[in-house]
Amino acid sequence: MAFTTLRLPPYPKLVTNNRFSGIFASQFHSSALPSRLVLGSSSSCVGTLSLSINHHSSPWSSTAFTCFSQTSELSVSVDTYGSNTERVVVLVIGGGGREHALCYALQRSPSCDAVFCAPGNAGISTSGNATCIPDLDIFDSSAVISFCRKWGVGLVVVEPEAPLVSGLANDLVTAGIPTFGPSAEAAALAGSKDFMKTICHKYGIPTAKYQTFSDASAAKQYIKEQGAPIVIKADGLAAGKGVAVASTLEEAYKAVDSMLVEGIFGSAGYRVIVEEFVEGEEASFFALVDGENAIPLESAQDYKRVGDGDTDPNTGGMGAYSPAPVLTKELQNVVMESIILPTVKGMSMEGCKFVGVLYAGLLIDKKSGLPKLIEYNVRFGDSECQVLMVRLESDLAKVMLATSRGELKGVSLKWSPGSAMVVVMASKGYPGSYEKETVIRNLEEAECVAPAVKVFHAGTAFDSDGNLIGTGGRVLGITAKGRDLEEARDKAYLAVEEINWPEGFYRQDIGWRAFPQKQFSRNA
């Protein structure tokens, strides 16, 4: 068996452990998968690491690193699978739950030698899914490029929309670094809902009727003419919180004032889109796009509202499952033909080819049964990414590299059978104000309650006493696979109930749309 020794420049805070992998490793990983270099991070030491990874050992064993001496060189032996296999070091930009899921999937990729994540989070580093680089400024293109050149990064995956809109992908591509993520011009599909609607109108893509306003009085007059219910959206990026579904005119007026007069979303809310309310079921559709070609991912459905029964305010997402029964194969073909491919062609004709993942937020019209485009995001969904990544069996690094090179034609993806579900645990008070730095316990126990359970971290850190604490609104994504959706749901909630976090909460009805009402109750 062939082994190659990689000698990497020193990283000043290199050490890992594998605190949260547990039984999950044996359920989600085949022993035939290749081992690879995956470096976790903390602040405890600097050392030389010399490790030979055998092809037939568990991939998770490579994360149990030991610090040997105070030197400045890292030496790792990695099974190369022969000279014909292209291997790549990947840098993931971001630090939330979807980035954790991507790092997890990239770590399992046979063509991936190492995974870095900037800034990352506590869960990513302690799980051994990536080396986190918390001090790398992801809005400083020159710093990111310098890091890539120093560490031989062959693929950068840019997830958050803010650095995409600011042009990080443009600069990386100009520097000759393969990048999975759209240019600033193409990222406007998510950065401006007015731009997205304009593309829809120009290229015949079905979407809800709308008008764009920068004047509150004009917006209110239009709302009065249209009546309620009606939808008001901030034009720019608002962290998933810039949408108000108003059931009365008064609610609609209040939403307009909050955005255009009070400026609660800053520059993101200087313009608003007032959109017709379409009754139907929401679904998420993802496609990889290389500028000219597009391939669909598996279907997924998320839950945006914070309360059980889809009540109360919108959030970034409180849970999801895959596959989504509402998106039949026939309907997926309709989405590709009527929404995704016209968008890809339209963006190319506009001179801003889209490269990366295109996330279409859909609404399946109750009257017609056909999909309408509600919004575009230019990154994976959180929490849909978690369920997709635990089901993906293809080499993610290889597929992302092909996307960045315009080589998706003929590529197909392999998915595990069965279903997956993620239940998000959030800080009490979210999406409003909430207490931070509250201690979370029993995550290892949660991952061991049933086979194929994985806890992805979104907003976690360690306090001075070494306790895991919540630092954000949405904090954990408890994800499980099952033979069917019912089994995945039962495993996920069993793990959630094992976690000791009095200051956290979660929805208890994730998946209800997919079950007959009499089968939904978990306590029945």
UniProtKB/TrEMBL annotation:
Cell cycle found in the keyword field: no
InterPro entries hit by this protein: ATP-grasp, ATP_grasp_subdomain_1, PreATP-grasp_dom_sf, PRibGlycinamid_synth_ATP-grasp, PRibGlycinamide_synth, PRibGlycinamide_synth_C-dom, PRibGlycinamide_synth_C_sf, PRibGlycinamide_synth_N
Keyword Flavoprotein attached: no
GO biological process per UniProt: 'de novo' IMP biosynthetic process; purine nucleobase biosynthetic process
SMART domains: GARS_A, GARS_C
Pathway info: Purine metabolism; IMP biosynthesis via de novo pathway; N(1)-(5-phospho-D-ribosyl)glycinamide from 5-phospho-alpha-D-ribose 1-diphosphate: step 2/2
Domain ATP-grasp residue range list: 197-405
Catalytic reaction list: 5-phospho-beta-D-ribosylamine + glycine + ATP = N(1)-(5-phospho-beta-D-ribosyl)glycinamide + ADP + phosphate + H(+)
One GO molecular-function entry: ATP binding
Enzyme nomenclature, EC number: 6.3.4.13
Assigned keywords, A-Z: ATP-binding, Ligase, Nucleotide-binding, Purine biosynthesis
Protein family per UniProt: Belongs to the GARS family.
Name listed for the protein in its UniProt record: phosphoribosylamine--glycine ligase
Organism per entry: Gossypium darwinii (Darwin's cotton)
